Amino acid sequence: MNPQATDAPRLDPRRAVPRTDAVLRDPRLREAAARLGEAPVKSAVRQAQERARQGAVPPGAVADTALALLPRTAGGLRAVLNATGVLLHTNLGRAPLSAAARQAVAEAAGPTDVELDLRTGVRARRGRTALAALRDRVPSAAAAHVVNNGAAALVLAATALAAGRDIVVSRGEMVEIGDGFRLPDLLVATGARLREVGTTNRTTPDDYAAALDDRTAFVLKVHPSNFRVTGFTRAADVTELAPLGVPVVVDIGSGLLAPHPLLPDEPDAETALRAGAALVTASGDKLLGGPQCGLLLGTRDIVRTLARHPLARALRVDKLTLAALEATLTGPATPTDEALTADPARLRQRAERLAHALAADGVDAHAVDSEATVGGGGAPGVTLPSAALSLPERYAAALRVGADPVVGRLTAGRCLLDLRTVPEPDDERLAAAVRSAPESAAGSASVSAAGSASASASASAGR
Question: CA distances (Å), 230 to each of 50, 86, 150, 376, in order?
Fold first, then answer.
């Protein structure tokens, strides 16, 4: 018998886990509580204590573990690196805001002169400087108005101009977009009646002309957005419809304000208005690269009618959106424009450099050619040459749930991280996320990759 043996019971290791009040005295956690609130900090501490009781972390690391579990902000949304190759990924919030727009939002977060003329001290028009910037970007627009999204822009137009009257629209433009959203349902809900003309693949100016009568409010042209009709087709353009004697409303969808050399088939606001459109509607968070909002550009009388309609109040945007929109319109190139115009050769160089660095750390990484898309319903069928990091498929799930989430896409059994949608300054951030993923990647193969494939291989075209 060992003379040093004792019958004294061993100390339960769970008793070494520090008490909650002791952990909360850590100055780092006190700072986090001031920033995030006490509830999330206490929740993180309880989770860390439970991990210590299970032996997953040492009792002395409870505070560090709790800090690692805390979110970066008090909000529930998490910043994500978009490596899908879809520039305007609907599930990831579409257009990322520029640095100028983010700064403008921060400046506008407190009290602002959103509806006050500081010189006179009297009430001023809401969003006046943002609307002026929008008109400057689209010279053919006599007036402009902004609502909270692209669908709202059409709702306001239909309600204010066509309630109880007819909207003439081609059968080929009665579209359904993302998440089962159908344009005809939206328009009918406003109290307007739809007068369908032509066929799915061919609608001529004569088809429109034959449908016009004293009940017609306007002719509507809708960009097909997320699909193309090819072959034996015919579509009347604005120049053919403008002389018919009723207003022509054009929904260009993706928010391109002027022609873009890389997207010759994408409709834009300036061209439509010059061709004779009375009103153009569009989204602000697509090719414009701004915040979610709906743009209305057109004649002074029509835009005034829309802005003064009672529904306009319910659809108006807040000061943060106005600030971000103005900075987008007046500031430097947006991340969307930079991604759209990125040099494929430079993208390949970045991919090779990252692959080489990661391979040196033992990661199965390769640089491969890739194809990116615009997304968000913009430029359907257009692909953009790109380059990507190719990783084993199991990385897809591990990167999504990492401390710094990365969303890629699955192609031929590999996880591709497309660099056209990753700003170059974020390359090291991307590499760090990949390096930290292998510890969980080995166990993530059982995690379904279907979510990654559906969320990242394509973008919803919803407006």
Answer: 60, 23, 26, 21
**Residue 373 phi, psi dihedral angles, 5° rounding:** -135, 160
* Predicted local confidence at residue 13, as pLDDT: 64
Q: How many structural domains are present in the chain?
A: 3
Residue 113: name the closest of 304, 323, 312, 315 by CA.
Answer: 323
Provide the CATH number for the domain around residue 148: 3.40.640.10
Q: Which of 300, 332, 364 is the last residue of a domain?
A: 332
What does the pLDDT look like over 191-225, one tens digit per residue? 999 999 998 888 899 999 999 999 999 999 998 76
Q: Are 456 and 407 in contact (CB under 8 A)?
A: yes
Tokens matching residue 373: 């898309």
Helices and strands, number each (H, E), in the chain: 20, 15
Domain that holds residue 289: 99-332
Q: Does residue 423 share a domain with residue 285? A: no
- Strand, helix or coil for residue 391: strand
Tell me the angle at which helices 62-69 and 27-36 cross, rounded to the nearest 10 degrees: 20
Q: How far is C-alpha 331 from the chain's CA centre?
A: 19
Residue 221 lies in a domain: yes
Cβ neighbour number for residue 369 with a 10 Å cutoff: 13
Residue 341 has a CB neighbour count (10 Å cut-off) of: 12
**Joined tokens for residue 435:** 């390096």
The alpha carbon of 304 is separated from its chain's Cα centroid by a whole number of angstroms, namely 29
**Cα-trace Rg, the chain:** 27
Q: Is 417 helix (H, G, I), strand (E, B) or coil?
A: strand
Cβ atoms within 10 A of the Cβ of 242, count? 17
pLDDT value, residue 450: 37
Global pTM? 0.85
For residues 44 and 32, what is the distance between their CA atoms, to the nearest angstrom? 11
Q: 302-317 burial by CB neighbour count: b if 16+ within 10 A, else e? A: bbebbbebebbeebbb
Distances (CA, A) of 93 to 10, 146, 288, 332, 423: 55, 19, 14, 21, 16
Are 388 and 439 members of one domain?
Answer: yes
Cα torsion at 251, 252, 256, 259 (round to 10°)?
A: -120
Q: Minimal CA–CA distance to 375: which of 460, 452, 451, 453?
A: 460
Residue 135, Cα to own-chain centre: how many angstroms? 24
